[in-house]
Amino acid sequence: MHLRAAVIYGKEDVRVEEVETPPMGPNDVKVRIKACGICHYDLRFYTGSKHPDKPHILGHECSGIVEQIGSDVSEVKLEDRVVVYTDTSCGHCGYCIQGRTNLCSNRTYTDGGFAEYKVASVKQVFKFSNSTNFEEACLTEPLACCLNATLRGRIQPASKVAVVGTGPMGLLHIELVRALGASKVIAVEPIPIRRQKALDFGADNVIDPATQNAVEEVLKLTDGVGADLVIIAVENVKAVEQGIKMVGKQGVAIVFAGFHPAVDLKIDTNMIHYNEICVTGSSDFPASLFPQALRLIDSRRVQVKPLVSHTFPIERIEEGFKTALGLQGLKVVVTP
């Protein structure tokens, strides 16, 4: 049996074609994909900053309907609405044993959700209610990434938070820190329409780093002490260097965006030492945060529907990639 999928071969070479349907084991579930979000990880393969070892199906933000279950599956039933967690950790390395599955030494990536169907272990599918649509549910994975960052940032009730970069991930962070009790949220963003979106998503103040001194403005808005948590959600060296300077004493700066290729930073080591600030990163999320993120969406504690600005059928996935790369709108979703 075959299924239709978008296969990446290399730079600007994505082809919608028929591929073999993966075999199912007794503990597997076959999901008919209804929505799959386009992520920066996918775009890096399309632009050529990452290179596939072999042609494969991208897409790791996917949701759909259970269409077939293995003989030993009892946790879900046919027609259940589910989100699929596509990464696989080994379960036995030192990081996995500690629960830090996102740092697994033997992590593997299966074919993704830019396809009509996805076969996954029943342990990798999570049910959601009829009140949540498929486009909303497919944002579980990016929200889980944001949840990992905020928790690593030691957010507390009444924390003052600055979010640098208000693309889809930055906007998710704004909503999430509000839900977790932040008393003040400051957004730093050069694009006017995204500054307005930041206000719509719950930011108290917005700063234009192109016309304002972002560091000075954050200090003013925090009574001269700086932010308790700064989340840097944009792949920009200056943004990272400025973001670290926005952190108050004993605060945390999270470098949330990855850089491809890697870059060097200029950091004032005395600021780190004397202000006792923590500069750290956040990559993906431990598997335990995935169902937590889904519950935040399903319960409406975090509203993700306004993030979805474009949807494209799988036949137009290349147009979807170009839309996302052109910073047109916000979140782009493919509907196989």
Describe this structure in words.
- The protein has helices spanning 40-47, 94-97, 134-137, 140-152, 168-179, 192-200, 214-221, 237-245, 269-275, 289-298, 317-325; strands at 2-10, 13-20, 28-37, 56-57, 61-69, 81-84, 87-88, 108-109, 117-121, 125-127, 160-164, 184-188, 205-207, 227-232, 247-255, 278-281, 308-313, 331-335.
- The protein is built from eleven helices and 18 strands.
- It is globular.
- Helix 4 (140-152) packs across helix 5 (168-179).
Named CATH architecture of the largest domain? Alpha-Beta Complex
The CATH topology of the largest domain? Quinone Oxidoreductase, Chain A, domain 1
Describe the largest sheet. 7 strands, mixed
Number of DSSP E strands: 18
How many domain regions? 2
First-to-last CA distance: 17 Å
Helical amount among residues, as a percent range? 25-40%
- Which CATH first-tier class of the largest domain would you pick? Alpha Beta
Total of helices: 11
Global shape: globular
Structural class: alpha/beta
CATH superfamily of the largest domain, please?
A: Medium-chain alcohol dehydrogenases, catalytic domain
The portion of residues forming beta strands comes to 25-35%
Compute the gyration radius: what is it? Answer: 20 Å
Poorly predicted runs:
none
Order of helices and strands: EEEHEEEEHEEEHHEHEHEHEHEHEHEHE
Can you give the mean pLDDT? 95
Annotate the secondary structure layout:
Blueprint (H helix, E strand, L loop, with lengths): L1 E9 L2 E8 L7 E10 L2 H8 L8 E2 L3 E9 L11 E4 L2 E2 L5 H4 L10 E2 L7 E5 L3 E3 L6 H4 L2 H13 L7 E5 L3 H12 L4 E5 L3 H9 L4 E3 L6 H8 L5 E6 L4 H9 L1 E9 L13 H7 L2 E4 L7 H10 L9 E6 L3 H9 L5 E5 L1
Parallel strand pairs: 11-12, 11-14, 12-13, 14-15, 15-16, 17-18
Antiparallel strand pairs: 1-2, 1-4, 3-5, 3-9, 3-18, 5-6, 6-10, 7-8
Helix pairs in contact: 4-5, 4-10
